[in-house]
Design goal:
By secondary structure, the protein is α/β, with parallel strands linked by helices. 53% of the residues lie in helices and 9% in strands. The protein is built from 9 helices and 5 strands, in the order αααβαβαββαβααα. The protein has helices at 7-12, 15-35, 45-53, 72-86, 104-116, 141-156, 174-185, 190-214, 232-248, and strands spanning 61-63, 92-95, 120-124, 133-137, 162-167. It has a 5-stranded parallel beta sheet with strand order 1-2-3-5-4, sandwiched between helices. β2, α5 and β3 form a beta-alpha-beta unit. α2 packs across α3 (45-53), α2 (15-35) packs antiparallel against α7 (174-185) and α4 packs parallel to α5 (104-116). The chain is globular and about 65 Å long.
C-alpha cells in the first residue's frame, strides 16, 4: 500500500486530505473483511491495515507471524541489521501475536534491536522490554496509521526500535468506527459505502476464484523446499510422516 505521508503532512493537511486517507483505509479494511470468511482477523482490520499502510513498499519489509509461531521477529531483526549497515533507510515491521512477550526469542530479538538501535517496529499487544513504546486504539485505523508512521520515521532517522501496542477488541468494530468518522467529516454519503461494499465483495470473489484455479499442492511437498540439500533428519521426518498414510492406503510391505 502506498499510503505513507510525512509527519509534517499529517500535521498540516486539512481534514479533507485526512478524509481521502480514511476513505482509502476504509476501503482496504472492507476488502480484508470480505476475504476473511472464517473471521480469523475480524475486529483486527484497523490494526493490520493501518500499520501496513504506513510502510514504504519500495524499501520497508513486513515480517508477519501466525497464532502459534513468532519466529519471524528474529528474521526481522537480522534484516534490520542489514538495512542499518547498508544505510538503505529501510525499516522492518514485525507483527507479534498477543501473549508472545513471554517467549525467549521475542525478548532476545527486542534486546538485540534495542542495544543496536536497529530500524524496526514491533507491532504487538504486549512486550517484555523497556523501549520507546506507543499504546494506540487498535480499532481506530487512523490512530494506528499515525502511530506506526511516526515509529517508522523515528527508526528511519536512526532512532532505533519502537513497540507499538495496539489495543483491540470486539467491543468496537473498526469498520463501523471508520464509517462514523467518515460520515462526521461530511465528505461521503450512502453511495460511497454501497460502492465500497460492492467493490470489496467483487474483489474478494475474484481472489477466491483465482486461488481455487491454482489448485492444491501435495501435502508431502512441505519437505521439498526447506533445504536445497535435505538433511538426513528431514528424510527421517518425511518417512515418519508418510508411514501412517502408507498403512491407510494398504501400501505396507
Amino acid at each position: 500500500m502506498t499510503l505513507a505521508v510525512t509527519a509534517t503532512e499529517r500535521a498540516t493537511a486539512p481534514w479533507s486530505d485526512r478524509g481521502v486517507l480514511l476513505r482509502r483505509l476504509y476501503r482496504t479494511m472492507a476488502i480484508v473483511r470480505r476475504l476473511d470468511l472464517e473471521e480469523i482477523v475480524r475486529g483486527l482490520e484497523a490494526a493490520q491495515v493501518g500499520s501496513a499502510a504506513a510502510l514504504d513498499p519500495s524499501r520497508d519489509v513486513v515480517f508477519a507471524t501466525n497464532r502459534e509461531v513468532d519466529g519471524a521477529v528474529t528474521h526481522a531483526v537480522g534484516w534490520a541489521l542489514g538495512a542499518k549497515l547498508d544505510r538503505t533507510g529501510g525499516v522492518a515491521i514485525a507483527y507479534v501475536d498477543e501473549g508472545a512477550g513471554s517467549r525467549g526469542d521475542l525478548r532476545e530479538a527486542i534486546d538485540t534491536a534495542f542495544s543496536s538501535q536497529l530500524p524496526i517496529v514491533f507491532f504487538c499487544q504486549s512486550h517484555g522490554r523497556a523501549m520507546p513504546d506507543v499504546r494506540v486504539d487498535g480499532n481506530d485505523v487512523l490512530a494506528v496509521y499515525d502511530a506506526t508512521t511516526e515509529a517508522i520515521e523515528r527508526a528511519r532517522r536512526g532512532g532505533g526500535p519502537t513497540v507499538v501496542e495496539a489495543i483491540t477488541g470486539l467491543a468496537r468494530d473498526p469498520l463501523a468506527l471508520a464509517e462514523e468518522q467518515l460520515r462526521q467529516s461530511g465528505n461521503v454519503d450512502d453511495d460511497f459505502f454501497a460502492e465500497v461494499a460492492d467493490a470489496a465483495g467483487d474483489l474478494a470473489d475474484r481472489v477466491r476464484q483465482d486461488a481455487a484455479v491454482l489448485g492444491g499442492r501435495a501435502a508431502e511437498a512441505l519437505f521439498d523446499f526447506p533445504f536445497s540439500d535435505p538433511l538426513p533428519l528431514l528424510h527421517g521426518q518425511r518417512r515418519v510422516w508418510a508411514e501412517p498414510r502408507r498403512v491407510r492406503s494398504g501400501l505396507t510391505d
